[in-house]
Amino acid sequence: MEQNLIFLLYVFVLAMFAGYEVITKVPPMLHTPLMSGANAISGVSLIGALIVTGPQAATLSVWLGMFAVILGTINVVGGFMVTDRMLAMFRKE
User: Residue ranges of the domains in the chain?
Assistant: First the structure.
């Protein structure tokens, strides 16, 4: 059990470093289009969190799933707001 936890923490830390390196290498001009594309990924994780949070007893996984639903919803809505704002810059008046 303890070895499994250490392995999962190891993978998590490596994913954090890899994600940081990938995100910092993105030029500012590409950030908003990539963010709008990432909304699809957030939508998939939101659906997964809704499945985990389904009608079950109040366990730790349900509370974590509800927290993931809240954060995923904030991410998706914020991403769509930024995308709409970006597209408004290109509209002709």
Answer: 28-88
